[in-house]
Design a protein that fits this description.
246 residues, globular
């Protein structure tokens, strides 16, 4: 099981939001490149980058920052936030992004997502952002009528193997994971998924480690506050072999 540090970028700074609320922001660094290098130096094998401005505006706003990060580290990254068309996907893949993460587009246009999958294959990932069981889009500002569970099933029906499921209500609040909800989501999965939102302690990692069907855990605020040390988290997670359910 992989531990993935999150680097959320807003106005060129590394920030964390509380519960997905853009009005509740904590700035942790003015230099996203240095933060990315720090996580690589501490042993990270993969990074999760989010263009928060892009998520709200519907188009990339921190593209150059992402490009700088990629040029200054050697580990792969995935990027999400404001990716709504093929041209943006192509731009990111051309600068070396390992996986391009779509959220709003995946929810609103599964047919278009299928086309992207056909063209870009494993370079496409989907973020399913859940707020009280409902899928949120447009930078978490709008709740859809669709359940996040329904969306998980639909994404896997069309062959999406790279899914990130985020519990928005717990993201950045250091409140611990909702293990009951995670278990319910995992019952729906065909392929292993990535879990995010609320991971705040080693105990949370241990709980997730015991579950079948988790490929990776994305951790944000807990790493920035020191509540979890990256190397310790990786050691805890390293004993788990993810088994694909059939």
């Amino acid at each position: 099981m992989l531990i993935i540090p999150a680097v959320d970028i807003r106005s060129g700074k590394v920030v964390r939001l509380s519960g997905g609320d853009f009005g509740k922001e904590t700035v942790y660094s003015d230099d996203p490149v240095e933060i990315a290098k720090k996580w690589e130096e501490e042993g990270a094998k993969f990074l999760h980058l989010v263009d928060l401005d892009g998520a709200r505006e519907g188009e990339p706003c921190n593209f150059e920052t992402v490009s700088l990060i990629i040029r200054n580290i050697s580990i792969p990254v995935e990027v999400g936030g404001g990716i709504r068309n093929r041209e943006t996907v192509k731009k990111y893949t051309e600068i070396g992004v390992k996986q391009v993460v779509l959220g709003t587009t995946a929810c609103n246009s599964p047919e278009f997502l299928t086309e992207l999958l056909s063209e870009f294959g494993e370079k496409i990932a989907v973020s399913i952002d859940s707020c009280n069981g409902r899928a949120a889009i447009h930078g978490w500002r709008n709740l859809t009528s669709r359940s996040s569970a329904e969306l998980v099933k639909e994404m896997q029906r069309i062959g999406m193997q790279n899914i990130i499921w985020t519990d928005i209500k717990r993201d950045g609040l250091m409140s611990g994971i909702n293990i009951k909800t995670v278990k319910e989501i995992l019952k729906l999965t065909i392929y292993p998924i990535t879990i995010a939102g609320g991971v705040s302690s080693s105990e949370d990692i241990l709980k997730l480690k015991e579950l079948e069907g988790i490929r990776a855990i994305i951790i944000g605020k807990a790493l920035y506050t020191g509540a979890i040390r990256l190397r310790e988290a990786m050691e805890i997670a390293s004993d788990t072999n993810v088994r694909t359910k059939v």
